[in-house]
Write a structure and sequence with these properties.
The structure holds two protein chains of two kinds. By secondary structure, chain A is mainly alpha-helical. In chain A, about 70% of the residues lie in helices and about 0% in strands. Chain A folds into two domains: about 180 residues, no CATH class; about 210 residues, no CATH class. Chain A contains 18 helices and no strands. In chain A, helix 2 crosses helix 6, helix 13 runs antiparallel to helix 14 and helix 14 runs antiparallel to helix 15. Chain A is globular, with a radius of gyration of 23 Å. By secondary structure, chain B is α/β, with parallel strands linked by helices. In chain B, helix 4 crosses helix 16, helix 8 runs antiparallel to helix 9 and helix 11 crosses helix 12. The N and C termini of chain B lie far apart (about 70 Å). The chains are: A mainly alpha, B alpha/beta.
């Protein structure tokens, strides 16, 4: 079920009322309802893959218990390996098998030999990369004794399949989310309102910004050689807004929805396009994934503590796997590598933690130097997005080539003024809210009720108008 | 909790108020650019306004030539200025919606006759339904009609009926809340394009002319694909003709949708109250028993049945077709002539 659908608009209040009115006194009842609702939410897309989620949950539930109860470290390792093998095995089979087979066949034929290996005819289950990483972190944390294993099967199953973040994150840590399923939840008016505001913010980003951009991005990326260089630059920039609106929009709706049910999820985006360098960008973009790779890959590999060469290796590894996590395609791997190359100079010069502070605090406009840094970072990320968006490597190279070769051509008018206007308003609104939690978080300054309600109404009208122009969230495919 | 629900409800009410205010700036045909372009043109006409209109799908748009109709009428001693309001992809319920709303406007002020395509009481498929172009006709009355149709449809399983009812319920809510509405009109300055009126500006635009003159490669490809399909399978028209003959032979005149007939009777009543003669045309097409039986139940002076291969041979010749479902300009001339002749006969019987 999509967040931006009437189905969800009907589903959410029904679950909400049952949860807070009928079952408000029973944590067990509420968890059971969330589990049922989550399986329904996912099953609407394809009920067969519920078996996969249930299987993965079951394996990790028992793996957690066995890891914790084993006194022998070797045994612990065996059970951890079991959990990793099952989870990564499923992920590999459904997501990467064909990619590796194709790449292997190509490599062999490049060497002058032919090899034929049958491809698997499988559908990629929605959200598999997200819930796999979530359950992996659980098993690893239990192994590291950072958390205690969950002994309640219902709570664990609900943790894995929690519908607000099941399909596209944020990738939650068991230490944050799991205890919330055992706790008694109370409805709070402030949380309810805050949740609704964040849902509104997410819908605005997805429906008004991302979906509006998608139409023109698709048009430009379809035949890049037909467009002028400036239009191709515009295409890359619009895709930057599309993917940001799409993914951060999803995260906002997920966080807001969870809050309506009394759960707090981790932040996933923090106005990344105002980052002043690439290192800051990666602290603000898809935070739950970046920190996952930091905690479970980068640091165990030694992080930056074992000399320059190993640091460089580790950086390449995490950007490579980050690229691969996004999709079984060389375009994603190259996108990851480009970001590694952007990041490395900062790391080597020890400047990767230069911007940990707020952006232009207490000022309406950025300083020139800051503005220039923001613009450069945005330009670099937009260039890398070309690889992320293109269907294949040659398509991406062709796009970038045409971008340069067609620079002398006069640009065609593609994007209607209405969409341009909305984008400009969106950027300005994001800038003013850059140090808040989301677009409609008015906690830092308290505007009048009339002002706030006018903003909500205008946003809702725009969401309604642009509703249904595009379909699923891009990140579902990951 | 109560405060939260109250505020959400208040917000929804405010939103609905604002939504209807915005909706009031858009005409009833806002999602049908072809029909819209034609109505806007007629509204701006200073003189020589039409007294005869044709409403329907592409079977009207691509097959009725007002200039031919008018000259034949004049030849028969009847002054006529007709206009083709047909638009592609219009199904019966949308046609009825357009007529119901047109009655309330000045569009029909000088009109004495409205010809309307008689089609099946079908409803758009689920996957097509959820966009403004397909669902905008579903006002309260349109929704009730659609639900009646779904509930009265020959039993295809209860689950299917529930599924359809849910889908239509969702589409109705989308319209009610304006989800996906009005943005295209705001984005495109020329949403109602003049080219839809056709070269003679009488609302008729032949498919072959459209294919030759379109600047949109997608439109060209789509039309050309349909054109070539028939060239590669000339037997298609013969098959439609044979099927129609077979159905006519064994027609069960009591097997039709009575609710559809009620809607038609109601429209005839409503139009006659403002002095308009409403005539339904059954064009040459692949028909089924229900549709033929329905045509036979409409009062004789309100229906023209041209889905008769034995009488209207020219309408079932391969040479008259652009594609498997639409006549070419040559076929359209025959069709228009037969409509005019049948209409004159109706008038003589009155």
């Amino acid at each position: 079920m999509l967040f931006n659908s009437v189905d969800f608009a009907l589903f959410l209040p029904i679950v909400f009322i049952l949860y807070w009115v009928l079952l408000k006194k029973s944590v067990y009842g509420q968890n059971l309802l969330i589990l049922t609702a989550s399986y329904f939410f996912y099953g609407v897309w394809d009920w067969r893959f519920l078996i996969l989620i249930a299987f993965s949950s079951l394996v990790d539930f028992f793996a957690g218990l066995l890891i914790a109860s084993s006194e022998n470290k070797g045994k612990k390792k065996v059970f951890l390996a079991l959990s990793l093998t099952v989870n990564l095995g499923l992920l590999f089979t459904f997501k990467y098998f064909n990619f590796f087979i194709d790449s292997f066949s190509k490599a062999i034929s490049f060497l002058g030999r032919e090899v034929e290996i049958d491809r698997l005819d499988l559908i990629l289950p929605v959200g598999i990369s997200f819930y796999t990483f979530q359950t992996l972190s659980y098993s690893i944390d239990v192994y590291r004794s950072r958390i205690k294993p969950e002994r309640n099967l219902l709570s664990f199953f609900t943790f894995v399949s929690f519908f607000p973040q099941l399909a596209a994150g944020p990738i939650e840590r068991a230490s944050n989310l799991l205890p919330q399923f055992s706790r008694r939840r109370h409805f709070s008016y402030l949380n309810g309102v805050s949740g609704m505001r964040q849902i509104l913010s997410g819908l605005f980003k997805k429906v008004v910004i991302a979906d509006s951009c998608a139409e023109y991005v698709n048009f430009i990326f379809e035949n890049p050689s037909d467009h002028s260089g400036l239009n191709l630059i515009l295409g890359a920039v619009l895709f930057g807004f599309q993917i940001y609106g799409d993914f951060s929009g999803y995260s906002d709706i997920a966080i807001g929805t969870a809050r309506l049910f009394g759960f707090e999820l981790m932040d996933n985006f923090a106005f990344p396009y105002f980052s002043r360098d690439i290192a800051e960008f990666w602290r603000r973009w898809h935070i739950s994934l970046s920190t996952w790779f930091r905690d479970y890959v980068y640091i165990p590999l030694g992080g930056s503590q074992q000399g320059k060469s190993k640091t460089i290796r580790n950086i390449f590894i995490i950007f490579l796997v980050s690229g691969l996590w996004h999709g079984a395609n060389w375009t994603f791997i190259v996108w990851g590598l480009i970001n590694a190359f952007y990041f490395l100079p900062l790391m080597i010069r020890g400047k990767n933690r230069r911007y940990l502070d707020k952006i232009s605090p207490g000022s309406h406009l950025p300083e020139w130097r800051e503005f220039w840094s923001i613009l450069t970072t945005f330009f670099l990320t937009s260039l890398a997005w070309v690889f992320f968006r293109a269907d294949n490597l040659s398509g991406a190279v062709q796009y970038l080539k045409s971008m340069v070769l067609n620079l002398d051509q006069s640009p065609q008018s593609i994007v209607p003024n209405l969409v341009v206007g909305l984008l400009i308003i969106f950027i300005i609104a994001e800038w003013f809210q850059r140090n808040s939690k989301h677009l409609f978080d008015f906690n830092d300054f308290r505007p009048s009720t009339i002002f706030r309600w006018s903003i909500y109404l205008i946003a809702t009208i725009l969401i309604a108008m642009f509703f249904g122009k595009s379909n699923a969230f891009i990140y579902f495919q990951f | 909790m109560r405060q939260f629900i109250l505020k959400i409800s208040l917000f929804i009410l405010l939103y609905l108020g604002l939504r209807s205010l915005i909706g009031s700036f858009f005409p009833y045909y806002h999602a049908n650019p072809w029909y819209g372009a034609k109505v806007v043109y007629l509204e701006n006409l200073q003189a020589d306004k039409p007294n005869t209109l044709f409403i329907g799908s592409s079977r009207i748009y691509r097959q009725i030539i007002p200039a031919v109709f008018d000259s034949l009428m004049t030849h028969d001693g009847r002054q006529c200025k007709s206009f083709n309001l047909g638009a592609p992809g219009v199904h019966s319920l949308e046609s009825y919606y357009l007529l119901r709303h047109a009655i309330r406007t000045d569009l029909l002020e000088r009109v004495g006759t409205v010809f309307m395509e008689l089609g099946e009481w079908s409803v758009p498929a689920d996957e097509q339904l959820h966009n403004e172009r397909i669902g905008y006709w579903m006002d309260h009355q349109g929704f009730i009609m659609a639900m009646k149709f779904i509930l009265s449809r020959a039993p295809k399983g209860r689950l299917k009926m529930i599924g359809d009812a849910y889908t239509y319920g969702v589409a109705y809510l989308e319209r009610f809340f304006g989800l996906g509405y009005y943005s295209e009109q705001l984005k495109q300055a020329d949403y109602f394009k003049v080219e839809y009126l056709g070269p003679g500006l009488d609302g008729y635009y032949s498919l072959e002319n459209n294919m030759i003159h379109t600047e949109d490669p997608e439109v060209y490809e789509g039309l050309n694909r349909r054109f070539q399909k028939l060239r590669n399978n000339p037997q298609l028209i013969k098959r439609i003709k044979e099927q129609t003959v077979d159905i006519r032979k064994n027609i069960d005149k009591d097997k039709y949708n009575s609710q559809h007939l009620d809607v038609i009777s109601d429209l005839i009543e409503q139009t006659s109250q403002i002095g308009i003669h409403l005539v339904f045309i059954l064009p040459p097409r692949s028909v089924n028993n229900d549709l033929l039986a329905l045509a036979s139940k409409i009062p004789e002076n309100h229906v023209i049945d041209l889905a008769r291969p034995s009488e209207y041979k020219e309408l079932y010749m391969y040479e008259s077709y652009f594609d498997e479902t639409h006549l070419n300009e040559n076929g359209a001339r025959f069709f228009t002539r037969f409509v005019e002749e049948a209409f004159v006969k109706l008038k003589m019987h009155e």
